[in-house]
């Protein structure tokens, strides 16, 4: 044991020393713009994962472009589907020009990506005299100094563009394609000075506006709102500064023409809340009424206790929208509310975790300061979005409740459409996944040979099955589902999978498939959505090592991956943060000596030690060694 601890401490000391100054890496985002050439730009989307259950829906994609090498004007551009030869509608944003010529921009267009398929597009130059006819799906009208935006599924009324001396809320009204459902208000005693509404981009694909507020005492509030074609949700990004939490200010969304009968967030209900274990489908789950279940003295588990169910006297519901907390019953990243009589659902989800920022960098779990609360009192329903310093990235959805019913009937899981939206347009959006490198050449094993023959001698099918099960947790569950197995389900990767995979006899295509699946899950575990480390430090401490250690295993298994060093950095930085902030300091007021782990030493620390020590050992001796790595030892042996 002493030798094991010495190896562990040696490796951890090394990793902390070289990485501690680095807050985070941007390995998962392609920062280098695509270069415009005389032949244009080719964009290829390919499903490198190739798992039949994983098929990405039509998604708005974004690519940064650099036009500096060859002159071209905006009206000379066309985007073509290479296979069908059809024009593809597109929209440019963040445009920078010089003497009428494009210098840089962001290219936006829609694409899906079915299982195993490839999509090829070419952005090219055409004569400016050729007219490109595209049917605009998102309509924008200016009426009575208001902006009306409608994509056929969701519609909004915003303040008109320009400077306003009288305060108006960011969203004046919101509704579906048949009726207005709600409005919003800002607090009266906020010290309003002025507001400005700017058009960022309007085109064939989406409309986007920036609404900026100036308040007394240096308070500023910005809301960027985007309505895209074919989406039953809108996206809004909030940026707040100068606010004091003790002021208790909030932007409220009031659903004055929507009366919910039921409430939902993940794990409320959970799969154990079936009415009849022998039946399936939507009607077989005990969905929570808007005011909670009746008091049940016989309750034995969350979320069935009275404290889990009862609304407070002021109407506050017992759960909220929060970036991260390890307890699943009160703090989640999605919520939905519906009325069976009208067949309507309204919901909300966190869009991009990287843009949910509490400047305090919370430890273990999110602070409640940015959390969105829900209220139901005297048949009135509203949401409260605190105005505090920080950022939020949100999507607000309005859709037919039948989408919830159909999804539950299909999966027999109590997970509704709002979670599908969060999954495909937030958590693993194609706009994010398109940047993940799951396949590359050469397709050959370069893992260092450092293990004795493993006794299990598993085959391709068993390795595939293990990874497939993990991917299905992403496909059919959520980041916070108690039955999704995160993060304990990860531990078999450290216990035997990476030994087996390193030694297994595989064909080239078998190796390619398993490598893609392992790398997919590596990106999932490195992402902020599962357990954040860039915007906050997630707990429990041992769970954090379960999740973040996988990137270290990936760097060891695939040292030739283009981002292998960033993967190693991700693991090593998480270890540094974990040891720094999840280890208790001296607190003289409590007469408490520092150095203790935040969990039971007799139990949880050993799982963390096992994962961390094994991964640290492999990286220290077989990845970071200059003699081995720089001399390409892996390829020669």
Task: Describe the protein.
The chain is of the alpha+beta class. It is 25% helix and 28% strand. Residues 1-30 and 626-637 have low confidence and may be disordered. Strand 8 (139-143) and strand 9 (146-150) form a beta hairpin. The strands form 5 sheets. A 10-stranded mixed β-sheet has the order 8-9-10-12-13-18-27-26-21-22. A 10-stranded antiparallel β-sheet has the order 11-14-15-16-17-28-24-23-19-20. The protein has a 4-stranded mixed β-sheet with strand order 1-3-6-5, with no helix packed on it. It starts with a helix and ends with a helix. Among the domains are: 2-26 and 436-636, no CATH class; 34-125, Golgi alpha-mannosidase II (Immunoglobulin-like, Sandwich). Helix 9 runs parallel beside helix 11. The protein is globular, with a radius of gyration of 26 Å.
């Amino acid at each position: 044991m002493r030798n094991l601890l010495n190896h562990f401490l040696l490796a951890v000391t090394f990793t902390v020393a070289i990485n501690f100054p680095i807050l985070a890496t941007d390995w998962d985002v392609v920062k280098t713009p695509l270069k415009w050439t005389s032949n244009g730009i080719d964009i290829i989307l390919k499903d490198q994962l190739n798992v039949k259950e994983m098929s990405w829906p039509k998604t708005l994609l974004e690519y940064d472009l650099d036009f500096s090498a060859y002159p071209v004007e905006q009206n000379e551009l066309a985007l073509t589907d290479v296979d069908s030869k059809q024009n593809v509608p597109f929209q440019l944003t963040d445009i920078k020009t010089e003497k009428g010529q494009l210098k840089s921009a962001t290219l936006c267009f829609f694409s899906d990506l079915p299982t195993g398929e490839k999509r090829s597009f070419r952005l090219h130059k055409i004569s400016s005299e050729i007219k490109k006819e595209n049917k605009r799906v998102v309509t924008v009208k200016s009426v009575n100094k208001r902006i009306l935006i409608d994509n056929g599924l969701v519609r909004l009324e915003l303040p008109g563009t320009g400077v306003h001396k009288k305060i108006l809320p960011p969203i004046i009204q919101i509704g579906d394609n048949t009726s207005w459902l709600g409005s919003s208000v800002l607090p009266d005693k906020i010290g309003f000075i002025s507001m400005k509404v700017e058009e960022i981009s309007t085109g064939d694909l989406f409309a986007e506006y920036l609404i900026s507020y100036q308040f007394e005492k240096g308070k500023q509030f910005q809301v960027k709102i985007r309505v895209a074609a074919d989406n039953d949700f809108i996206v809004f990004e909030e940026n707040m500064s100068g606010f004091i939490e003790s002021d208790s200010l909030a932007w409220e969304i009031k659903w004055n023409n929507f009366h919910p009968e039921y409430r939902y967030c993940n794990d409320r209900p959970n799969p154990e809340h079936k009415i009849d274990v022998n039946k399936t489908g939507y009607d077989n789950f005990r969905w929570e009424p808007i005011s909670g279940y009746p008091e049940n003295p016989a309750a034995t588990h969350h979320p069935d206790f009275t404290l889990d169910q009862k609304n407070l006297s002021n109407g506050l519901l017992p759960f909220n929208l929060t970036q991260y907390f390890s307890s699943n019953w009160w703090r989640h990243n999605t919520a939905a509310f519906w009325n069976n009589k009208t067949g309507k659902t309204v919901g909300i989800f966190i869009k991009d975790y990287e843009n949910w920022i509490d400047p305090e960098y919370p430890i273990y779990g999110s602070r409640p300061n940015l959390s969105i609360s829900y209220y139901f009192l005297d048949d009135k329903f509203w949401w409260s979005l605190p105005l505090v310093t920080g950022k939020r990235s949100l999507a607000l959805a309005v859709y037919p409740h039948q989408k919830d019913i159909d999804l539950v009937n299909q999966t027999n899981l109590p997970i509704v459409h709002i979670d599908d939206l969060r999954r495909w347009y937030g958590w693993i959006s194609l706009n994010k996944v398109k940047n993940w490198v799951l396949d590359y050449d050469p397709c050959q094993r370069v893992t260092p040979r450092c293990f004795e023959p493993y006794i299990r001698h598993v085959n391709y099918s068993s390795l595939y099955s293990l990874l497939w099960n993990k991917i299905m947790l992403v496909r059919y569950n959520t980041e916070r589902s108690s039955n999704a197995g995160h993060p304990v389900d990860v531990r078999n990767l450290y216990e035997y999978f990476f030994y087996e995979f390193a030694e297994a006899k595989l064909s080239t295509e078998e190796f390619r498939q398993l490598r893609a699946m392992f790398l997919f899950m590596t990106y999932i575990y490195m992402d902020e959505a599962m357990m954040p480390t860039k915007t906050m430090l997630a707990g429990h401490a041992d769970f954090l090592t379960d999740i973040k250690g996988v990137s270290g295993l990936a760097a060891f298994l695939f040292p030739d991956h283009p981002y292998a060093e960033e993967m190693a950095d991700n693991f090593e930085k998480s270890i540094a943060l974990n040891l720094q902030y999840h280890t208790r300091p001296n607190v003289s007021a409590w007469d408490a000596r520092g150095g203790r782990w935040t969990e039971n030493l007799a139990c949880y620390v050993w799982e963390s030690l096992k994962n961390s020590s094994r991964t640290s050992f492999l990286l220290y001796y077989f990845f970071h060694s200059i003699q081995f790595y720089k001399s390409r030892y892996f390829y020669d042996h």
